[in-house]
Amino acid sequence: xxxxxxxxxxxxxxxxxxxxxxxxxxxxxxxxxxxxxxxxxxxxxxxxxxxxxxxxxxxxxxxxxxxxxxxxxxxxxxxxxxxxxxxxxxxxxxxxxxxxxxxxxxxxxxxxxxxxxxxxxxxxxxxxxxxxxxxxxxxxxxxxxxxxxxxxxxxxxxxxxxxxxxxxxxxxxxxxxxxxxxxxxxxxxxxxxxxxxxxxxxxxxxxxxxxxxxxxxxxxxxxxxxxxxxxxxxxxxxxxxxxxxxx
Length: 247
Fold this sequence. Notes:
globular, five-stranded antiparallel sheet
């Protein structure tokens, strides 16, 4: 990043042989983030472009491909909604497809598509005056067009700032375990570490997950935080914090 920016929340996505990373591009002078992407070729950046830029903060551009269409849900809690964007000319041109959870404050919304045609919505919601998005995880189920949204019986399914907040796309590992990355947020330190948690049971009445791995910033003395993990088949991306901002 440039000196007046911090890059965070990287999401890997492929389009044919082309590889991209969509991410939060935080501008210090404006004190808010925008959504940008970089195109990667031979592990080098060959293109950078700003995709979404508004008067309020955006981050966590959760992105996925469905059939032949690309969709993206950026974190837009300042708009009091969860925005779903659809690409009309990937990767640069996007249109607002739908808003859900209007009037609510949700962050880091993550979608899990299942083979039975449902979408599971994992989101971190603040329901108090403190605007705390770190402590509670909510799960909903919707149809493929984000209609008929049903709340999980146990919502919030997790109340614990050490494991609740989403930290990247949910994925299957090589043992076909379903893995949810989550943040470790302790005391007043946001993004201290990263969890990989195994989802053992998921339906509208039950949710169980267990600890698989935990990563803390103890592998380099200059690094003080790690809080996001994204993978796209054989490649993965993380963000690291040092000198008080994420890169």
